[in-house]
Every structure is written in C-alpha cells, then in structure tokens.
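Q: Sequence in, structure out?
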Amino acid sequence: MTPVAWAVAAVAFGVGTLVGALLLRRKAKQEVVARTLVPHRTRQIVSALQPGAIVVRTDGRAAYSNHASASLGLARPDGALHEGVADIARRAWQRGETLEEDVEVKRGVLGNVSIVHVRVVPLDEELALAIANDNTEARAAEQTRREFAVNVSHELKTPIGAMSLLAENIEDAAEDTELVRQFAGKMRREARRLTKLIQEIIQISRLQGGESVLDHEELDVASVVHEAIEGARLAAETKNISLVTDLRERPEVLGDRDLLVMAVRNLIENAVAYSDPGSRVTISVGSRDEVVSIAVLDQGIGIDAKDQERIFERFYRADPARARDTGGTGLGLSIVKHVALQHGGTVSVWSQPAVGSTFTLTLPGFEEAAA
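A: Exactly. Output:
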C-alpha cells in the first residue's frame, strides 16, 4: 500500500472513531436525560403495565415505553414515537386536559392495520403519559353486532310484511272461498319461513356466544349423517331428489350430537334447495390422518367464484331470488361454519356453475380430540 493510501486509511479510521465516539456520547446523554425525566421506580411501574404505556416528551419522542407499546407499533426503544400518539399528546398539552382517540397503526410487512385506542394524560409541562389498548377486535365485534341487528330487522320485515298484506287480501276476498284458501296457504308458508328465521337467529346467537357445545360425547359419524338425512328427507322427496350415501367408513368424533346433526342437515337441505328436481345429492363420510370429513355433493346450479368466499356470512345469498322461492334465510351455512369452529373443525366448498357443489365439513377424529 502506498504512503498516500496509508494516510487516507488513517484519516478515515480517525474520522470513523470520532463519529462513533460522538454517537455513543449522544446516546449516553439521551439515556441520562431519560433517566432524569423518568426515575427508575417509574420505569419499573410502566414496564409492569399490561396495556401499552409511553411517557411522552414535548419534542414528540418517547422518554420511556414498555414492551407492550412496542408490540402495538407505537414506540421504539430508541424513542421514536408513532405520529398519531405524538399528535394526541400535543393537543392534550394545548388543552391542558386528558385526551383519548383511536389511532390506526400499520404493522408487519403486509401493512395490516390495527385500531389502537390511546389515552394521553398530561403530567406536567415536560411529560405526558399515554396508555394504549388494541381495539381492533372490539371494533370488529361492534361492527358485526350492528350489521347483525340491521340484517335481522330487514329479514323480519319481509315475511311480516307479506303476512300483513295477505291478511288484508283475505279480508277483501272474504266471500271468495277459493281465494281465501290460496291466501291462507301463502300465509302458512310465510309463517313457516318466519319461524325458521327466528329459530336460526336464536341458534347462531347461541353459537357465537360460545355456550352451545355443552355435552361432548363420542359419536358415530354415520349415525349423525343418518339422522340428518331423515330430517331433510321430506324436502328431498318434495322435489323428487335422491339422497345417496357413501358410509363405508365409520369414524367417530367427540362433540355435541344435536349441533352436528343440525349442521349436516343444513348442508343437505341447502344442496336440495339449489338442485333441480329429479337430480341426486350424495353424502359421504371419510377419515384420513385422524381427520373426519363429511361431504355433501349436489348436481345443482353451482356457485360463482366471487360468491364462494362470502356464502358462509350471515344473511348472504348468492341468488336472492331463488333463496326467497326456497324459503332460505341466509343463515344455514353460517350456522354450519360456527358449529364446525366450536368443534375445532372447518367447512369448505368446491363449486362450479352449471356443474354442482361439494360442501365438506371436517372435524378432529375422536383419538385426536381425546388427546
């Protein structure tokens, strides 16, 4: 190496050493300031808090924060602070009062958005305390409750309105026996639809409450399927649809018999409702790697790809007009999904328009559930 190169290297080394020393000194100074602003005992208390806790400085940085606040994406150990929290703190100081708001936080490489509720309390002219809780699930649950209430109101209006109109028609046609008979028959159908809707609303409310699976017992899946078929047989016979079974395997599961029968019956009735008269619905049972599957295959109208992800939502109907004709409430598949979840299982669908659909309910086998 030439003398010039040695000189350049020496200068670079010296500059690097100087910069490193300055950075270490700055960091040490920041730590001293932080310790001065936030005493050791206070830092211990903040660290022990379950929600996110941040001691905010007037320059919009964190004097101290606990691990929970870092997990929420609000503060880093180097003092960097989420802009939303810093903004709330500035306004809290300006007003001289406690201020609380929701802050959107993007976390992870996918940028998933969380809703974090932040409450900022000014402590003095230099510091404020921010307490943060993740409200994402609570917000989603509240939104779900609101949507459920709106949907229930809308769904109840239809049969009630129809029955009211039919009652008026009966009054107007009181002297026409044939018309009265026709209107009375329509009222019975609307009453059955209303009864079914109310029953399913009660069922799904209990399922979502997590209180429905009370009595687990060892169940022969084939017997569950047979009972479900008997419950759906009348609807199938009305449309001249054959219910075919493939029950060569007889696995067992641990679960609530009534709920599982209801789930399988809903799948069968759904297949019957969306199949053409004279066609066939096949119900099969299989077991592999301690996972039990119950598949219901139809030769019906099929489901568009855009609808397949949403058909398990409450009140969602891929074909509203046909659902009204069949008396569907839009809750049957949602009930199946919640029954599956409460048994540690899943429900999935394969479908192709004009070909048919296959709904598969999977459950842990008895040996796996017992373990």
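Residues 136-172 form the longest helix (37 residues).
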